[in-house]
Design a protein that fits this description.
By secondary structure, the chain is mainly alpha-helical. It has 4 domains: 120 residues, no CATH class; 258 residues, no CATH class; 170 residues, no CATH class; 198 residues, no CATH class. It is 53% helix and 3% strand. The two termini are 28 Å apart.
Length: 975
């Protein structure tokens, strides 16, 4: 998205060009053509507030003719006698280079003077220092109170299901009546036929849930033959917890939701932002009245008791709601930035978000000068900013890390204190045990030293480091194996014990052989010489080859056949020595200090794990104390403050001020007062803006096609009476969003087919008259969710921390926990354990790292927000679906699901694939074409992989088929 200043410049250029074109058609007038130019370039010095420089006031045509201290500024009809034009042309005025008028502007002023300097209407006799609004500005449609229009009475009642249809049909009938001689008019200006049930359930499911309908949902809808089947389906979808995810995403776009700070390349992660996202989801699911929703987001902190401790669930909810005012890019926690500039930019971006989301106005274009096209003086911008300055207070700024509010209660703290005391006991036991191990290790190491230095070494080790003598330091340095004994190094001494134990084992094995051999020799030597030779001969003979006599002889002298098992009988001393060695090795192995101490640590950690987790909410709150003053910044520069201003709504909407301080509240109460003004039901913009966004969410385009700009450069409503009727109905319903959903979706205009009469596409090519349902491409997150859904992998868990994103080895942004090597280059990501299958809404919104598949399908970069998503159709999207790891992986999952659920027959697999992907049954020709395609793939795979078995071949062939389905327009679009 464009930066605010670039956007305003583009609007100015476009408007200037259109103004010149209008001047060529008819004589320019002051109100429509000249005043916007002077507002943008001159009113700061010669306009609405303060002393007029040189006594020249440019707010009215007669003031310009009258002139200032130097005399008349213009002479109508005489260009050469108009000093104002001469000074503008010479570049003398305006004095600031960046405010010089363009050639188109100068030509337009020249044409105006030459034509007699006309006005459209008589000018007022007296004006004060405040803003002067023209009749056109005061009568502009968006600034008029919402008045409930009468539902039109139309001739064709057959397709009227709701009042919405009556307004649409009335306009169509008006077009027909305006073309009495056009035989095609009646066909051109009518609704398309009703869509079939399968298209409707798919349309409704994506509209309200952002997910394709499940086979179960389709079967239930198909089986319901009651007259209210459609209404019951809408009810089920609105009651789904996934409704809040879908419509929460729409609102999160408008407010610029992000999980990172943006502003600079650092793009720090924004902890706890997800709590606001979850608040929005809950609000939509609960059908929270939208007036309450707005009030909580603007002033939730002013609606709960101070101080913000021991918070109730309701208080937490309201504080979380103020995350709305913390969504703007914010680099004030980063180093190396100009803090005053960065802080004021945060406030400016927040003002832009507020203006576009709630007022549908480009309020931000009045930050540096009077709005060039809308009746928003620069002073109004800063009056509106004064509503928020007590909370932001740029000169006493709260950096992002200090904005947290703890969710701990006193009960939580008491429980945590008790648990900590229990864990501390275990810590104390561990320290006691550790001292035992240190003492034992010290004594073991001392035994390895010369006897004469053991005592001084012990003393040196036990002496505190600060109290050691030089001799002690030297001694410890000479024997580091003693000096380095500590709790942290005990594991090293455990290893040394293992080495010593292994050596004891090796030595014992050698002793065993030696002791057995020596014992056998002694036993032989005990035998009389006459029998000794016979015994030795018998021993040398293999047992299986011995004669009975030899066996009897050896049985007479069992000691000569001694083994390790019988050694104790014939050589008790040797057996005892071996046993001592064995026990010594076992003791060394058993004395694992580090392992034993870790058991204590683990126990303490487990105990502490029972503590209530301390959560935090990122909120906007006012700090008690001096309320900051708000000044108008000359050219938007905080270093050039001019007059002080008081809080107020835009003058064109509500000329009254907002109370500076509500004595009943611990805060100023300014935001709460303004929020109540916005939602009192009499505000001309808020309800219109919101219902327009609801219409946009269903039809892909609002009744006003510029949802963030209801001003003079925005689009005019295609059906203004319908817009007002919906706005009034919205307020009457108690600001209930689901009521408007039901109205829209129950209408014939919503339920019609996307295939209108051919004459309609000619007469209504942009479908502004709603002669057919508009075909819409799914948004980026919805495409991904739909792919995961049909593949059977979608994780429908609600709420929680965002799924992290990272950059892989080739620069693609993927899901994963970053895992950098020694050179800080990405390596294989740390597994997400199923979190990677969650809905796109829960994927981390990192301003500098948009998930690659999201970026391909126009996911917005929140800088600061997204008033309306683009829907492009470019080659990179097809390439992404053809070649990306994502597309290949989930096509394989999809294929495996078909094989598992539909059985071995390709035709059955194709039928299920069609139903899952397109929510309908395939025609016989579709099945035949699919089978032919799969068989062709099977043949190719056999040739490429001759060793592959049939199951593998079928899975790979079906995966390719699935990838084709997932890449098709039929999958990517809703009709």
């Amino acid at each position: 998205m464009m930066h605010r200043s670039a956007w305003c410049l583009l609007l100015a250029l476009l408007a200037a060009q259109s103004a010149v074109a209008r001047a060529e058609e008819k004589p320019p007038t002051y109100e429509s053509d000249i005043r916007p130019i002077l507002k943008a370039h001159c009113f700061q010095c010669h306009g609405e507030t303060g002393e007029k420089e040189g006594g020249l006031d440019l707010r009215l045509r007669r003031f310009i003719v009258q002139g200032g201290e130097s005399g008349a500024a213009i002479t109508p009809g005489k260009i050469k006698d108009s000093p104002l034009l001469e000074r503008i042309r010479s570049g003398e005025m305006p004095p600031d280079d960046d405010k010089r008028l363009s050639k188109q502007d100068i030509d337009l002023i020249s044409a105006w003077i030459a034509a007699g300097a006309r006005t459209e209407n008589p000018e007022p006799d007296n004006v004060g220092d405040g803003p002067i609004f023209t009749r056109a500005e005061r009568s502009y449609w968006a600034f008029q109170p919402v008045k409930r229009p009468t539902v039109p009475d139309v001739r064709d009642r057959n397709r009227i299901l709701t009042p919405i249809d009556a307004f649409i049909v009335a306009e169509l009938e008006r077009r027909v009546a305006a073309s009495p001689n056009d035989p095609a008019a009646k066909q051109a200006y009518q609704f398309a036929p009703a869509a079939d049930g399968r298209k409707l359930i798919r349309r409704a499911s994506f509209d309200l849930l952002g997910l394709p309908p499940t086979p179960t949902a389709i079967a239930k809808f198909d089986a319901d033959t009651s007259p209210d089947a459609w209404g019951k389906l809408i009810g089920r979808l609105l009651d789904s917890p996934h409704y809040g995810e879908r419509w929460g995403r729409h609102w999160l776009d408008v407010v610029g939701y992000a999980d990172s700070e943006g502003y600079s390349e650092e793009d720090r992660v924004r902890p706890n932002a997800y709590r606001y996202r979850d608040y929005v989801i809950r609000a939509f699911n609960a059908d929270k009245p939208f007036d309450q929703f707005i009030q909580e987001q603007l002033a939730g902190d002013e609606m709960v008791p101070h101080p913000h401790k021991n918070l109730s669930a309701d208080a937490v909810e309201k504080l979380t709601a103020t995350g709305f005012l913390r969504m703007a890019p914010d680099g004030t926690a980063s180093g190396g930035i100009d803090q005053p500039v960065a802080r004021n930019q945060v406030i400016a971006d927040t003002m832009q978000i507020i203006g576009s989301s709630l007022l549908g106005l480009t309020v931000n274009c009045a930050q540096c000068h009077d709005h060039r096209y809308d009746p928003i003086p620069q002073a109004d911008y800063y009056r509106m900013r004064a509503i928020f300055d007590p909370a932001f207070d740029w000169q006493n700024w709260k950096a992002p890390p200090s904005r947290r509010i703890s969710l701990y209660t006193d009960a939580d703290r008491e429980l945590a204190k008790q648990i900590e005391a229990e864990a501390a006991k275990v810590d104390k036991e561990r320290l006691t045990k550790a001292e035992v191990y240190i003492t034992r290790t010290l004594e073991e190491e001392l035994l390895l030293l010369p006897e004469e230095i053991r005592k001084p070494m012990r003393t040196a080790y036990r002496t505190a480091a600060k109290d050691r003598t030089d001799a002690q330091k030297s001694l410890l340095k000479e024997y580091p194996t003693v000096a380095k004994i500590s709790v942290g190094s005990l594991y090293l001494y455990d290893r040394r014990r293992d080495v010593r134990a292994r050596k004891l084992d090796v030595d014992r094995k050698a002793k065993e052989k030696r002791f057995v051999a020596e014992t056998a020799r002694r036993e032989i030597e005990k035998i009389a010489s006459e029998s000794r030779e016979q015994v030795e001969a018998a021993l040398k003979t293999a047992a299986k080859n011995r004669t009975p006599e030899q066996a009897t002889l050896l049985g007479k002298y069992p000691g000569v056949s001694v083994t390790l098992a019988t050694l104790a009988k014939f050589n008790p001393a040797a057996a005892a020595e071996l046993d001592r060695d064995k026990q010594a090795a076992a003791k060394l192995r058993a004395s694992k200090a580090a392992v034993d101490l870790k058991r204590f640590s683990d126990k303490a950690t487990k105990i502490r794990g029972a503590k209530p987790e301390e959560g935090f909410v990122r909120a906007l709150t006012e700090t008690a104390g001096k309320v900051p003053d708000t000044f108008l910044f000359h050219r938007g520069d905080h270093e050039q403050p001019k007059e002080q201003l008081q809080p107020a709504d835009l003058s064109i909407l509500n000329p009254g001020q907002i109370p500076e301080n509500d004595t009943a509240l611990p805060t100023t109460g300014r935001r709460l007062a303004w929020a109540k003004q916005l939602t009192n039901g009499r505000h001309p913009l808020v309800a219109r803006v919101i219902v327009n966004r609801l219409w946009l969410g269903h039809f892909g385009r609002g009744l006003v096609d510029s949802p963030g700009d209801f001003g003079f450069l925005g689009e005019r409503p295609t059906h203004p009476k319908l817009l007002d009727w919906l706005a009034d109905e919205f307020v009457r319903s108690g600001w209930k969003v689901k009521r408007i959903h039901r109205l829209i979706m129950s209408s014939a205009v919503y339920q019609q087919s996307a295939a209108g009469h051919p004459a309609s596409t000619v007469a209504d090519p942009d479908n502004r008259l709603y002669t057919r349902f508009p075909i819409q491409r799914l948004e980026a997150e919805v495409i991904r969710d739909a792919v995961l859904s049909v593949s059977g992998k979608l994780n429908l868990k609600l709420y929680g921390k965002p799924v992290p994103v990272m950059e892989d080895e080739v620069g693609q942004i993927i899901l994963g926990i970053e895992n950098l090597d020694g050179e800080r280059k990405p390596t294989k990501p740390i597994p997400l354990n199923g979190e990677e299958f969650r809905r796109g809404l829960y994927v981390q919104v990192r301003r500098s790292r948009t998930l690659s598949i999201f970026e391909a399908f126009d996911a917005p970069n929140m800088s600061p927000n997204c008033e309306r998503r683009n829907s492009s159709n470019v080659a990179t999207q097809s390439l992404m679906l053809m070649n990306s790891d994502f597309a290949v992986e989930y096509s394989q999952h999809f294929a495996q699901r078909l094989i598992d659920k539909a059985g071995p027959k390709t035709a059955d697999q194709i039928k299920l694939a069609w139903k899952l992907a397109f929510s309908t049954e395939p025609a016989a020709a579709d099945i035949a074409a699919g089978e032919q395609f799969v068989e062709l793939q099977r043949t190719t795979i056999r040739e490429q992989s001759p060793k592959a078995n049939d199951a593998t071949i079928q899975q790979r062939a079906m995966a390719t088929f699935c990838q084709v389905l997932l890449s098709s327009n039929r999958f990517l679009y809703v009709d």
